[in-house]
Specification:
The complex is a heterodimer. By secondary structure, chain A is mainly beta. Chain A is 15% helix and 39% strand. Classes of the chains: A mainly beta, B alpha+beta. The interface between A and B is large, with 44 and 56 residues. Chain A: This is LLGL scribble cell polarity complex component 2.
Chain lengths: 998, 346
């Protein structure tokens, strides 16, 4: 009965667990999925982005970010900062308004929802009466003006959201002062724009959809002027001095209107269709910015000729004779201009154009010649080509770090050198504990190197494997080709390019050795590239070898994709990681596992057919092993990706269907009221339920057998120096685990360094273990005599790890999807096991060894297994006794792609995709925690009169901004210094080996 | 005394002919004998009619090992599962022959001659409305052969009757283990898998649990047809619903232990050392240190439950149409083994 007793509750261990483990989701990296609204506060120098799922995110200086989530998860339609306040108002698509505040709390600032409000009309009125279409946050900071579909403008007090009914501006009141002959009641339907006079807060400009524009006096409640356009109105913009304003229209025209005190009805100064004369698309938003030299900047969205360029997402900038239409690869959500916000300044002097497109943020420097883009320090579009895999490397040596940065800086020369213009708030987070790299592989054959040390995920360097291969697309095809007399003057900007030329280029596996700078990258068509870091451009021939993984099998025909064609002759590579050898697997199936041993100069790779070992020093294939079961036709014939992609496309089309249904329901101005929508919702759910009952999902219950499909699929490869044959001599070994629960171990003979080029590397199969439960093997690990996992290659050589204990007996840990098993070595007998699936019904998806340090004492740390299951739970399991320590729910189990994308770090952190463009970062450790900590100071406001008050506060904000930048530089400098001082000796040694190795 | 000869696998003929052949081969034309064979799991099973004779021939892989005993010396308990571990008793019985002169003409095997494929267990601790079924997957090539689905069942709760989600058997594959037992039926509600309650678990989770336990699957069901339940006197037949619910948790830990103890034996993995030579070394891997490589004899004794093949048999010749057979006639007392090269083709 002993074995049934629960392990005793050990209070000492329980306390230690509290010091070691803690689960936090700390920050979201990347670009928000489905952004729907943009806001900017020149006062706080913060930008706000709202999304269709109801999230609101604020960004300032790098490291300054806040996030909030509307409970309703409804689309954020508009965001308005309250002038000169740490507050903002959001409008959702359910017509609700939400007031958010940045409040200081415990040393940092926090974003909190303060209040919410939905405009209610009189009983019996149609919903359009209160459907908010335009919001004006008045500079008095006391009221909001809400323009509605009905043409009424309601006045709401802040922060209480109390409707001031006596101040409502009704269409009737507006029409009183306007001659009947050119206006009627219908002219005042749907308020399209509300703008406050830049100099006189008592006057607001009201733009109605039917082109009637009225300058309204708030004090006397009367129209001072009215302006009548000929085309449907889209938006309005005041010029800085308040003497003129611009209206833009549905037909692609804009009109400049003078505001003079003498005449009550004005004629336009200028009416232009910039991309005429043929019919044009609407100009939906326009800025008119004055400059010292007199030539204004006219910046507007849309207006392209309807027939030829109607599908473009463009923003045009006109400055004198210069004109460029920035052409975005995805829909433009909104944009704003950063300009001098000091009211005392005479001119706008715009410095930057900030554009939120559906898939990326683009910032254009308007001060430098040629209007180059600014490299954003955050909000990177992770998905500019779809992410296919990721790989995390902790604690990068400084030398390698600097070399990668230097390679990357050569790629970024076309970016502007302008400091990041959105720089509000102060980052008060401690320096990141170490330098971490996150490598993402993409569908287009690129690998992106991200600085994942801190809160801002920042692109350091981009590697492309495309040059090695011959593809249809010309790699020299420049995105920014601009013909001399091309009209309209379109210029592509941004990096989002979801269209891959060739899906075979997709990166599937990445392995970087941080000590040697060797990088192995493997892809969809069985290509394995080994690369070396070179600080200079170079032109050389990439050696080519084939690995026939079916060599002793006959009569099989591969029906999947062909291998990629390679370029003959020397290829020019830019500074950075340059491939020197290509191993091509045959059949060219997707590479499913990869391991690199930089000390032995060996690379191992596996597909659904088998695995092989390549000596990249001698450029010789050492051996291949076929793991395919003869009857496994499915694995033989086609790529797994085909099955997957079919599934994926099905899933996506379903998602699209669902989305379109949702969006049609949510379309603005739809006639249905809330209860109808709810009813429709309920009916939809019921239908879905019925559908489910009609066709019940059933699952087959069957034991696994050797004949199942994809049993030969190689899931994991592992190099270890351990006791494979006998307990007296250890030797290099390669371990491979398959989908069918088989583990192969090969004994390797690697010649000593002095004869490394002369003698061949030899390999001999030493063991084959068949797990009886036949579940896929997802992890293999050897523990040394002290039960510590063996160190990484070169780790000991660089004195960064204790030498492994070769005295005590080694143990082999095999992790399958269903259980964990420890075996003795060299004689394989099972020692311990932990069953997961049989007891809990969950399966291992990801597993890594992580080192956990105690937050109480610096000298205690231990190694545990961090495990992610198919249910999205994270479990920590102790080594070597395989005891479950703790369990945290992390990812929704329905989020299959999130679970598949998860990557753990060596120090108990992790990343997973919450959307195609965003990584969620989490931490399991009490010690290593990277999360935003920042503060937004509210400059003191003493007076409500904003005209007098404004200069002071704006100056303060502006003054603080350059010093912020300086502090950042200092900070990063400090970080480097700190790292240097900490392990100078170590780093010197690394440096010397790196140089010696070259 | 050994004889080795070959048989046409596709045309094994009738049991009488085979019996005659054996008597001929061993030159014992008028001696009544009991014929037995070791099946692929190492169990000693009888050959006494056409059916089990055909079964024996068809499962030969490729060797069929036949044991022949003089009928007057024979003991029927020698056959069946675990026979080899009971060898000692067999021998003592053999040494103390009983009077078995009168035999019925048609010999029906004893219960222990059959390997179990399923059983109802824990009847004493389960409520009457539930049934706990154990499926013995090892030892047969039959698929488990059933499907499960989501569904809902009505439970008695403190708030009255409530519909709760449950897992149900949706389909039985004809000829599968589940169907052939007759203990499981479509629409039976699955309550537990190897002692672990499935309530609150998704269909996929339960599927994974069943597959992970497939080598020794124990499922507790509430049969859709409640008329064939085991009726015990202590309970009135009216009690169901609530009472059954409450009785489950108390018994669960008990069962769990029981189940775990039983499944230990069928979990061993296989290790092949140095693939250069075809040297399978199946290795039971107990926690008490390592066992040296096993001889073939030991294997026969050991492998009754482990479910893997002794290496000698798998690596021998694979002549397509015929099988070769090894016959052994155990004789009381110490004996010298010699091999006779006679090969007869039918």
């Amino acid at each position: 009965m002993r074995r049934f007793l629960r392990p005793g509750h050990d209070p000492v261990r329980e306390r230690l667990k509290r010091d070691l483990f803690q689960f936090n989701k700390t920050v979201e990296h990347g670009f928000p999925h489905q952004p729907s609204a943009l806001g900017y506060s020149p006062f706080l120098r913060l930008m706000a982005i709202g999304t269709r799922s109801g999230a609101i995110k604020l960004y300032g200086a790098p490291g300054v970010e806040f996030m909030g989530l509307h409970e309703e998860n409804n689309t954020v339609m508009q965001i308005h900062f309250i002038p000169d306040q740490c507050q903002l108002v959001t409008l959702l698509d359910d017509n609700s308004l939400h007031l958010w505040s940045l409040k200081q709390h415990g040393g940092g600032s926090e974003l909190r929802e303060e209040n919410r409000f939905t405009l209610k009309g009189p009983p019996g009125s149609p919903p359009s009466a209160t459907q908010v279409t335009a919001v004006l946050a008045h500079s008095s900071r006391e009221v909001l003006y809400l323009g509605t579909e009905s043409g009424n403008i309601f006045v709401v007090e802040l922060p209480s959201f109390q409707v001031l009914e006596d101040r409502t501006i009704t269409p009737e009141a507006v029409l009183q002062r306007i001659p009947e002959d050119n206006c009627n009641r219908r002219s005042c339907e749907l308020v399209e724009a509300l703008q406050e006079h830049p100099k006189n807060p008592d006057q607001i400009l009201i733009g109605y959809s039917r082109a009637l524009i009225v300058l309204w006096d708030l004090q006397n409640n009367k129209a001072i002027h009215h302006f009548l356009g000929s085309q449907q109105l889209e938006n309005l913009y005041w010029q800085r001095d308040g003497s003129k304003f611009i209206s833009c229209h549905y037909d692609g025209s804009y009109t400049q209107w003078p505001v003079s005190s003498d005449s009550r009805q004005s004629e336009p100064l200028e009416n232009t269709v910039p991309y005429g004369p043929f019919p044009c698309k609407a100009i939906s938003k326009i800025y008119w910015q004055t400059t010292k030299n007199g030539l204004p900047y006219i910046i507007f969205q849309g207006g392209m000729p309807r027939a030829s360029y109607g599908d473009r997402h463009s923003i045009s900038v006109i400055h004198g004779s210069q004109q460029t239409a920035f052409d975005f690869t995805s829909r433009v959500i909104d944009f704003f201009i950063i300009f001098s916000s000091d009211p005392a300044a005479e001119f706008d002097d715009p410095s930057a154009l900030v554009v939120l497109a559906e898939e990326e943020l683009v910032v254009i420097d308007l001060k430098s010649a040629g209007w180059p883009a600014v490299h954003p320090p955050y909000l990177a579009s992770l998905h500019c080509s779809a992410i296919t895999c990721s790989h995390h490397v902790s604690n990068i040596p400084l030398k390698l770090w600097e070399r990668i940065i230097s390679a990357g800086s050569k790629q970024n020369i076309h970016y502007s050198s302008m400091p990041w213009p959105i720089d509000g708030g102060t980052n008060i987070a401690p320096d990141p504990p170490q330098r971490d790299l996150l490598l993402t592989g993409h569908e287009d054959g690129t690998v992106r190197f991200w600085d994942a040390s801190g809160v801002c995920l920042h692109l350091l360097y981009k590697l492309s494997t495309v040059r090695v291969f011959l593809t249809d697309a010309d790699p020299n095809d420049n995105m920014n080709t601009l013909g001399e007399d091309e009209w309209p003057p379109l210029r592509k900007v941004g990096t989002f390019d979801p269209y891959s030329d060739d899906p075979r280029l997709g990166i599937q596996k990445i392995y970087l050795c941080k000590y040697s700078g060797y990088l192995a990258v493997a892809g969809t068509a069985g290509q394995v590239l080994v690369m070396e870091l070179n600080d200079e451009d170079a032109e050389h021939v990439v050696d080519h070898a084939e690995a026939d993984l079916l060599q002793d099998q006959e009569g099989y025909r591969w029906k999947g994709h062909e291998k990629l064609k390679t370029r003959d002759g020397p290829v020019r590579f830019e500074a950075g990681f340059q491939p020197f050898v290509l191993v091509q697997c045959q059949p060219p199936a997707v590479v499913t596992s990869l391991a690199l041993h930089s000390e032995w100069k060996l690379v191992a790779f596996g597909t659904s057919h088998g695995f092989g070992l390549f000596d990249h020093q001698q450029k010789r294939l050492v051996f291949v092993k076929c793991t395919l079961h003869p009857s496994d036709q499915l694995a033989l014939e086609g790529p797994l990706s085909r099955v997957k992609s079919l599934k994926k496309s099905l899933r996506q089309s379903f998602r699209r269907m669902r989305r379109s249904r949702v969006s049609s329901r949510k379309r603005r101005g739809g006639g249905g009221n809330a209860s109808e929508v709810q009813e429709a919702n309920a009916k939809f759910d019921q239908d879905a339920l019925q559908e489910m009952e009609l066709a019940p999902v059933q699952r087959k219950i069957e034991a696994r057998s050797a004949e199942d499909s994809f049993t030969g699929f190689v899931r994991t490869l592992y190099f270890a120096d351990t006791f494979l044959r006998d307990s007296s001599r250890h030797c290099p070994s390669l371990w491979a685990g398959t989908n069918g629960g088989t583990v192969y171990a090969f004994c390797l003979r690697v010649p000593p360094a002095e004869r490394r080029m002369d003698e061949p590397v030899r390999a001999e199969q030493a063991k084959e273990i068949q797990l009886m439960h036949r579940a896929p093997v997802v992890g293999i690990l050897v523990l040394d005599g002290r039960s510590t996992p063996l160190p990484e290659p070169l780790e000991v050589a660089h004195d960064l790890s204790k030498s492994p204990d070769m005295q005590g007996s080694h143990q082999l840990l095999v992790v399958s999807e269903e259980q964990f098993k420890v075996f003795t070595l060299p004689k394989v007998s099972s020692k311990l096991k932990l069953k997961l699936t049989a007891l809990e019904g969950c399966r291992v998806r990801k597993v890594t060894v992580a080192n956990f340090g105690s937050c109480k004492t610096d000298d205690y740390s231990e190694n545990d297994l961090a495990v992610l299951t198919n249910l999205g739970d994270i479990q920590i399991i102790s080594l070597p006794f395989l005891k479950l320590q703790i369990r945290y729910p992390c990812i929704r189990k329905e989020d299959v792609s999130g679970i598949a994308s998860c990557v753990f770090t060596k120090y108990g952190q992790g990343f997973y995709l919450i959307s195609p463009s965003e990584f969620e970062r989490f931490s399991l450790s009490t010690k290593w925690l990277v999360e935003p900590r920042c503060i937004v100071d509210m400059p003191e406001v003493t007076s409500n009169n904003h005209v007098h008050n404004k200069p002071g506060t704006e100056n303060a904000a502006r003054k603080s901004s350059p010093s912020d930048g300086g502090e950042d530089e200092r900070k990063s400098g400090r970080l480097m210094e700190h790292a240097l001082l900490n392990d100078e000796k170590v780093l010197k040694e690394i440096q010397s080996t790196l140089e010696g190795g070259r | 005394e050994f004889r080795r000869f070959s048989l046409e696998r596709s045309k094994p003929g009738k049991f009488e002919e085979f019996y005659g052949l054996l008597q001929h081969v061993h030159k014992i034309p008028n001696v009544d004998v009991l014929v037995g064979y070791t099946d692929i799991h190492g169990d000693l099973l009888p050959i006494n009619n056409d059916d089990n004779y055909h079964k024996a021939v068809s499962t030969a892989n490729p060797l069929l090992r036949i044991f022949i005993q003089r009928k007057e010396d024979a003991d029927y308990s020698a056959f069946g599962t675990d026979t080899m571990t009971r060898k000692k008793n067999v021998l003592s019985n053999v040494l103390r022959p009983d009077n078995h002169k009168k035999k019925p003409h048609i010999v029906i095997s004893m219960p222990q001659d059959f390997r179990p494929v399923s059983s109802i267990i824990d009847v004493d601790i389960l409520p009457e409305t539930h049934r706990r079924v154990r499926l013995y997957k090892y030892g047969t090539d039959k698929p488990l052969g059933f499907y499960i689905r989501d569904g809902s069942s009505v439970r008695v709760t403190p708030h009255g009757l409530e519909k709760v989600p449950g897992i149900f058997i949706s389909r039985l594959v004809p000829g599968g283990l589940a169907q052939s037992t007759g203990l499981l039926a479509v629409n039976d509600e699955v309550l537990e898998v190897n002692g672990i309650e499935v309530s609150g678990k998704s269909l996929d989770q339960v599927t994974d649990m069943m597959i992970a336990n497939s080598r020794n699957l124990i499922i507790t069901v509430r049969p859709a047809n409640q008329r064939n339940n085991v009726v015990r006197n202590s309970r009135t037949s009216g009690s169901s619903g609530q009472s059954t619910e409450s009785s489950l948790p108390s018994s669960a830990p008990n069962i769990l232990g029981h189940l775990q103890a039983e499944e230990e034996s069928d979990e061993e993995d296989i290790i092949i050392e140095d693939s250069g030579e075809p040297q399978h070394i199946p290795k039971a891997a107990p926690t008490s240190g390592s066992i040296e490589s096993l001889s073939q004899i030991e294997l026969l004794h050991e492998s009754t439950q482990n479910g893997f093949l002794p290496s000698g048999q798998t690596s021998l010749n694979h002549s397509a149409g015929s099988i070769s057979m090894e016959c052994e006639v155990p004789e009381p007392g110490p004996k010298s083994l010699e091999e006779d090269g006679t090969i007869i083709t039918l």
